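Listing S7. Sequence submitted for prediction.
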Amino acid sequence: MVQTLIFLPILAAAFLAITPYTRIIYLLCAIALGVGSLVSISLFVSPENIPFYFSDGLKILVVIADVILLFYFLYQGIAYKNRLIIFLSLLQLVLYGWAESIAPSAGAAEMIVDDLSKMMFLIINIVGGIIVFYSVRYMEEESASPFKKRLLTIGLMLFLSVMNAIVCANSLLLFFFLFEMTTLASYLLIAFRDDEISRTNALRALWMNQIGGVVILLGTLVAIYGFDTVMLDALVQNSGGMLLLSVALLSMAALVKGASIPFDGWLLGAMVAPTPVSAMLHSATMVKIAPYLILKLAPAWAETTLGDTFSAIGALVFVAASYLALSRSVFKEILGYSTVALLGLMMALAAIGTTESMALATVLMVFHALSKALLFLAAGVLEKRYHLKNVEDMAGIAHRAPETIGYVMFGFISLTLPPFGLFMGKMFAIESVSSLLRERPILLIVLLGIIIGSALLVLLYFKVSSALISNSSDVEERETEILPLGFRFPMMGLSILAVLTAAWFMLLQDDSALMLFLLPLVVILLLPRFIRKMDRYDRIQPYHCGEKEPFDAALVYYEPSARIKQIIYWSFGLLFVGVAFVGAFS
């Protein structure tokens, strides 16, 4: 069944490439979504782990493909005269050739499907599949040729195949190849519109992610020399020696792929691409590699100085990114920074290494995927149908687009309020970290980070929400919003999944708490009607003698000075390098 998840998107992409009919494209995406979801659920309920062994021929094909990919990166660096990409590509070629030449030929499984992989399959194939389906309708309004419109959907479909493979890669060399395949996908998808700004941001994404590839290869070389293995499961079962150095280098790749400061630029630059690309990179797939990798590495560094240090860095990223988000006014950039923040929180909890903290990180991953995908899809609707990107221009938009803003508000509710997993996860995380302070005092940084970062994010979401639902003083007749089904079904599906997942989560905690899940369901059903009724009223400030003035209290910004930004980025840059030093000397 795992082969189905890897090859089904490839097969669907091939059919998408040859069919010119929109209805067939919708049908193919729906079939891929349905089959991928059913297979993922079937694997999730299966208790056994599944190993896969590569033949010698397949191993050679992977090596050839990897070398071709690295030479392609080198070509792109030469073509666009980017010296950093040229240097990193050459360095990767040298390191990869070195690692392959000395890698042991033990007969271990190159791929293993474990419980974490099965959970990732659910996120990738259900949430990612919904985004692919949404992309068909979104691209109908894109100014591009019919084939290029299909090309984006094809690219997203192929991306799902790569993601299904990387979350069960056990060989570090295979993981490196698939890691760089995700880098290739992000490069091509960000550059989709092929204008100057798209190309600039795509090149930034390429060189930043190549840094992640370099540290993976360095970690692999340390694993080979220190433990004579390139298998992740064998590496984390070892102790002593250069184990923590290898793990530290691999964890640095997670910081890059998770767009942690100072690497947040590549993910924020992805906003220039069509919204389905932002949704795919920010919510369902790409960035989830970061907490996934930390969860895989956690057994090797549980209760060590390295694990606690990395956890503190994740918490600091949570606070810093939440703070920087308050200075943004573009809706998708706000969502992007909150993604960077929450990824920092997930990695912080995963790095603590206890059973409870790792379970909480997993819960956050699931709910974040659902909520952020919903918010990005709604942002795409606002962009395409109302030509709105900046929150400053969205004051009162709820009265023109009550259904779309209803989904936005539900997305914010699912990020901030009970019974959803993000709220519950943060609440339980505070309790869990507090219980460890006596034995591990450095976790006080994590505890404070969770508290401060959570408060900043709540402030952020309420600030944006108040702007969206604010009403102007002048009341005018407005047409009822009619959403196309290609937009409505994906957002409705994600909302229903969020409610059902919250109900399942509450059922696991306490049967009597199950009824709490009805609250957000009532809100999502009644909010559009409430917003429409607000049009009947003319809002004025009560102490201004009745004169009309705009409502702008929601648009308060917390812009840090250039010096503060510089301090933040240099500090996190030093912390990034410091991870390797901590690993080397622990």
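Caption to Listing S7: primary sequence and predicted structure tokens for the chain studied. The mean pLDDT is 83. The two ends are 42 Å apart (CA to CA).
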